[in-house]
Amino acid sequence: MYNEADSIENFFASLIPVLDQIAEDYEVICVNDGSSDNTLELIKKNNQINRRIKVIDLSRNFGKENALTAGLHYADGDAVIPLDSDLQDPPELIPELIEKWHEGYRVVQCIRADRSHDSFIKRFTAGVFYRVNQKLSDVSIPVNVADFRLMDRQVVDALQLLPERTRFMKGIFAWLGYDVAQVSYVRPPRAKGASKWNYWKLWNFALEGIFSFTTLPLRIWTYLGFVLAVAAALYIVFTIFKVLIMGIDVPGYASTLVVLLFFSGLNMIGLGILGEYVGRIFTEVKRRPLYLIKQTIGFDESPPPANRRL
Question: What is the model's pTM?
Fold first, then answer.
């Protein structure tokens, strides 16, 4: 939850009745990702009403992926379901996820069947991302898959073994494997409030998804460099024969400038791709914690087991 004060009451009003019908033994872990509004106060108020509601209050905003990781570290259930508090992940779908889990599936993914509520630009860019990811990535991410899913305890424990600091959770979920079932649903528009994502954040999120699970961009640049070197060698041979046969001609300023700008641009792109990977190495070797917790409410005093902390 990040600045979701407008939607919290509706969220609990929709979620708790669904969970009460499924089981008596459940927990709702709310991760406050450094909200600047009264999100935390509203969660605390609901904790007083229902002690199954627990709180992880992060020291600042660490981002969606790290906040999700914090919730998964503290979740103790036999099955764990991450979902957003804006009600675009409908709680009414949870019984169907539980049913699939009882059939023996370790992971039950929720697939968006309709994106008509999204803008044309968002639908188009999302389609481009999934197509590029399918071509480049070593891990195949299902199209229009959401973080909203059910994971068996075994899967959640396996997730804790992945220590990377730059986390693209959709890719990490896909990398785990296990027996997967899919449930289609129509994602409703936000009940209240506004999305905290903008196109710049989505662009960086897409880059994270591509660079975190493949080194193919580096390999492509190697192939491109080889092709250009061969082309340059052939052009040198052509120029030598041209001079021998037709004599020396004066090269044009414009063509020289175009060639210089073209190859300078290629060098900058190559350095940029290399920098993306170097930056991720820089982040990993520092080994800073994924998040810091200011306070927890509703948990035992003891922290999660050591093998479930990064």
Answer: 0.66
From CA 263, how far away is CA 230, in angstroms rounded?
14
Q: What would the mean pLDDT of 61-68 be, rounded to a whole number?
A: 85
pLDDT at 64: 84
Q: What is the pLDDT of residue 308?
A: 45
User: Do residues 28 and 60 share a domain?
Assistant: yes
Distance between CA atoms of residues 268 and 10, nearest Å:
49
Q: What is the pLDDT of residues 9-60, one digit of tens each?
A: 888 888 888 888 888 788 999 999 888 888 888 888 888 888 888 989 888 8
Return all residues near 193 (Cβ < 8 A) that are at least 6 apart: 3, 4, 5, 6, 7, 86
Confidence of residue 310 (pLDDT cuts 50, 70, 90): very low
226 and 293 together in one domain = no
DSSP, res 187: P
Report d(CA 71, CA 82) in Å as an integer.
Answer: 8
Residue 163 structural domain: 8-214+287-308
Place of tokens 């424990």: 157
Distance of alpha carbon 119 from alpha carbon 200, whole angstroms: 15
DSSP secondary structure letter of residue 166 = S
- Three-state SS for 165? coil
CA distance 310 to 302: 16
234 forms beta bridges with: none
d(CA 58, CA 68): 11
Q: Is residue 2 assigned to a domain?
A: no
Check whether residue 280 and residue 146 sit in a common domain: no
Strand partners, 109: 149, 182
Q: Pairing relation of β-strands 293-297 and 145-152?
A: unpaired
3 domain-assigned: no
Tokens of 271: 């350095």
- Give me the number of domains the chain comprises: 2
